[in-house]
Structure formats: C-alpha cells, structure tokens
Amino acid sequence: MSGRDGADGSEPRKEGGSSTDTDDERHDGEPRDPRALRRRAGVRGDARQDQHFLSDERVLGRLAGYAQGFDRSQVLEVGAGTGALTDHLLRTCESVTAIERDTRLVEFLREEFCAEREAGRLEVIAGDVLSIPLPAFSASVSNLPYGISSEVLFRLLPRKRPLVLTLQREFAERMTAAPDTAEYGRLAVTAGHYADAEILEVIPPEAFSPPPAVESAVVRTVPRKPAYEVPDDQVFLDFVTAVFTQRRKTMRNAIRNTTHISGIDSPESVLDAIDEDVLSARAGTLEPTQFAELATIATREGNAEP
C-alpha cells in the first residue's frame, strides 16, 4: 500500500516535476494519471517495504465516491504516496490532510500539489502516523499499508469518524466477521464497538504497482454507539484482547491466564460471578454484549483497570 519507505525502488527524478510534464497528457478537469505521478516522483514502489501504489483510476474514483454522504470538510488520508488518491479526494472534498512518512514523497506532494496547498485545500504532514499526533478530521479515506493496518485502525476508530479504507482482504474479512466464525476475534469486536463496518468491494492485485501477493478490499465504517454499556472503553477492550489471546481455551482458563493483560486483580472473584455456560464457552462464540457483561463483572468483582 502507498506511503511507506522504498528507497530501493527509486528512479531518476525528472527535471521540473510539475503536473504539465510531457509524460502526463491530462487535460483540464481530468484526474492526474497515477503512472505519470510515479514517474514524476521517481519511484516504482517496493514490495519488500510494503509499498504498493494503487494505480487503477476506476478504483481510485470509487474510493473517493464511497465517502459521499460523509462530512468531507476535512478529510484525512493516511499514506498519500504519490498523490493518486489525493488528487481524487481534492476533486470531491473541501480540504484534505495527507500524512506521508517517505520524505522524498512528502517533497514531491508539496511540489506537485502546490496550487492546492496555496489555496488552503491541502496540507501535507511528514511523519509516521503511528507516532505523530493525529490532526483533526471529519472523515478518512486511505489506502493503508498492510503492515500497519491494525495499528492505524485502532488509532482511527476511537476518533468516531467515518472511514473508507483499503485493506488486505483477509484483514477486512476478520474486521467484519460475525461471532462463531473462524475469522471472528478481537478485531471484529473492537471495530464493532465503535462503528458498523462493511466490505464494499474486493480489489485484485493487478490494481496496484507493484502487485501485492494477495487481494485487497475496501471497508467503510460508520460510527455509532454500541448496543450495550461498558464501565470503561479501555477496560472492555483490554478484556477482549486478553481472552482472545487464548481463544482455544475456555473462558474460565482464558480469564485466569490473562490477568496481566486484562488488569483483573481477583480472577477467582470474577469467575464466581459468571454463569457456568459462559465459563465453559470459548471467546470466539460470544457476542459483543456478553463481552460487555463480562467486562462489567471484571470491574466490579475483580477491580479491573486499564
């Protein structure tokens, strides 16, 4: 996915670097050609660095279109790469904030989209999205690198803003999985705690340059309140994380064995307050409402803290 370091995939940078280079036959009003953007940026992408540029213009256009109906006054793009998606977002959104880690691409984006920056419609932030403070945003449309999808998602979801994300297909299926399925786990429960999530389309490897080894998928999340109450979001999520580290064990053993993650001080007191049928079950069979009830018991009986 775009926006990761890939120095081994660099090409000689052409002089000028503007959107009027002869390798881009774009007419006024047309989107920039993703291939021309890569040529002007002087990069090919590097699979070893998790750097795959989304190049299919039809997919790029649909990604921006999936955000219709959202507040697009301040859209966040994580991993802007060479700006192919940035260009489409600028055509449909009031303003865009693009985060990019690769310093070469930050320089290129600031030059390529100089007019948009001067008009106050684009801000390019240099840095690693996992370590810098997240800027304010009304929605996010991003083509995420596979390797950091989980960490980025867990940063974005608590902000309770709509998201349109390109992810590895397997990851997307785990994110939207239902209870008592092989894919169901911490990711699905966490995503469902903050939002409704759905897979909108599957993207073949050929839509990227270089093509990844697996399929990708577009996921859209719409924030909403959960259908249950929890004593504390972090206590709830810590409990879910804990028991899914031992998903093949019964809940009785999973709760006993993971107090270092859940923060439970008195596991036996917690177990005494839980019905036997739940203690005999495994984490993958429980509904989110049941995890909420268990987290409440963990707080009340076991003094669980984040």
Kindly list the characteristics that best describe this protein.
single chain, 306 residues, alpha/beta, Rossmann fold, Helicase, Ruva Protein, domain 3, 2 domains, seven-stranded mixed beta sheet, two-stranded antiparallel sheet, 14 helices, 15% strand
Describe this structure in words.
- With 306 residues, the protein is α/β, with parallel strands linked by helices.
- Helix content is 37%, strand content 15%.
- It has 2 domains: 7-223, Vaccinia Virus protein VP39 (Rossmann fold, 3-Layer(aba) Sandwich); 233-302, Helicase, Ruva Protein, domain 3 (Orthogonal Bundle).
- The strands form 2 sheets. The chain has a 7-stranded mixed sheet with strand order 4-3-2-5-6-9-7.
- The radius of gyration is 22 Å and the shape is elongated.
State the assembly state of the protein chains: single chain
**What global shape is seen?**
elongated
Whole-Å distance between the termini?
33 Å
In CATH terms, the superfamily of the largest domain is Vaccinia Virus protein VP39
**Could you estimate the helical fraction of the residues in percent?**
25-40%
Q: Round the mean pLDDT to the nearest integer and report it.
A: 91
CATH topology of the largest domain: Rossmann fold
Q: If strands are numbered along the chain, what order do they take across the biggest sheet?
A: 4-3-2-5-6-9-7
* CATH architecture verdict of the largest domain: 3-Layer(aba) Sandwich
Q: Helix and strand layout, with pairings?
A:
Blueprint: H1 34-41, E1 53-54, H2 57-65, E2 75-78, H3 84-92, E3 96-100, H4 103-112, H5 114-118, E4 122-126, E5 139-143, H6 149-156, E6 163-168, H7 169-175, H8 186-194, E7 195-203, E8 208-209, E9 216-223, H9 233-244, H10 251-257, H11 259-262, H12 267-272, H13 276-279, H14 288-302
